[in-house]
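Task: fold both queries, return tokens.
Query 1:
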Amino acid sequence: MLQKENTQCPKRGFCIFIDADSFPSASRDLIIRMAKKRQWQCCFAANRPLPIKDDRDIQMVIVPAGKDMADHYIALHAGIYDIVLTRDILLAELLVKTNISVINHLGEIFDQNNIAERRSVRDFSFHAHQCGLISPPRAKSAYGQKELNQLANSLDRMMSVLMKKKIHAQGEAK
């Protein structure tokens, strides 16, 4: 299904997967800085090239055009010690069910306790809009420093939790 040359994001440790088709471009530098600081990898998955400088730990994976192709790539490659950044509630729900950590663009961490409610709200809004019960969604509001700070705080917290979790799991395995 994934045919292009650069569809592999070789994982050597912890990785942040970004559903880059929908994630705010203003957050890219922040994500990269945080990943490099902690020696994590980043894998930006999208169906078009984005202005990201590939290096050993920062990858731009271009998936074929098509509905949810970046989602499929991420779902296939993310593991329990990785973090996925996405605005897609359906992808978040799928990943949370497999114990993968998911954060949205506003820094909200999705987990087993809140994903069903988020999915319900999403489905209700979608169907109410389709039936004409509510007006179309408003234009996207500005993505500013407040949102970046919330994302940074959640990402930092989740990176710490996963690193501790892996160290603990390795200790138990010995």
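Query 1 returned. Query 2:
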Amino acid sequence: MWNTIGIFMNPTKRESEKVAQHLEKLFSQCGCKCIRVLPEDGEKLIDCEALCVLGGDGTILAALDIALGGNIPILGINLGHMGFLSEIEPTNLDECIPILLRGKFVEDERMLIEGCVDGKKIAALNEISIVRTAFSGRVLTIEAEVNGCMVSRISGDGIIASTVTGSTAYSLSAGGPIIAPSVNAFVLTPICPHTMASRPVVVSAEDTIRLRVIGDTDSAQVLCDGKVAQTPISEIVMRKSEKTVKFLRLGEQNFYRRLKEKLSEW
């Protein structure tokens, strides 16, 4: 079915080497060539037909540019703590990989949020956020507009614009709602707002969101899936990206069962 499989390893996970070797053995038995790399050599995977990511959700986010660049579906193999985006545990490889190679899988397609700041485009699977810089003790004041209409003005540590995938990540920790992947929506979640009236707002993913920093812009930065994308920041415009990312799932998924299994571990 596939000729070339990419294996994206997280070098900080001790079991990563052992799991990668076992994957290579299983795939080679079915005639598949494997290319194994560390994050710094990710461009070598651009021509692969499927991408096995060994690590947690953070490792999957690190491999996102490779998957998007080649429209490569991701199979997450959980070596992290929660692994909300992962599909397989290392103990299940012998059972799951043959099922996968028989074509018994579905593609779980997830939307991205795209932002434009100072003419530069960024895209995130989980969230784009405006937060205080690391050494700033100043409170940020941010106005949030949806389709040209102001819906919120918050003073606090920042604000998160989250996808439904990201609703179980940073946004959840900041008090945002959990939203099923089938819902076409974004969430605007304030971070430590200094008011009792500020609440998360769920908006359509077809809307255009504008976040504007009022006052001291030098204390603000944009994070894209947790990585600094721009400092300082005065304004960013966001909407649904035309690109999507695909995850390989072994059969139909029950989001609510996964929610209970993963989040109850903490």
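Both queries returned. Flag for query 2: The CA atoms of residues 85 and 229 lie 23 Å apart.
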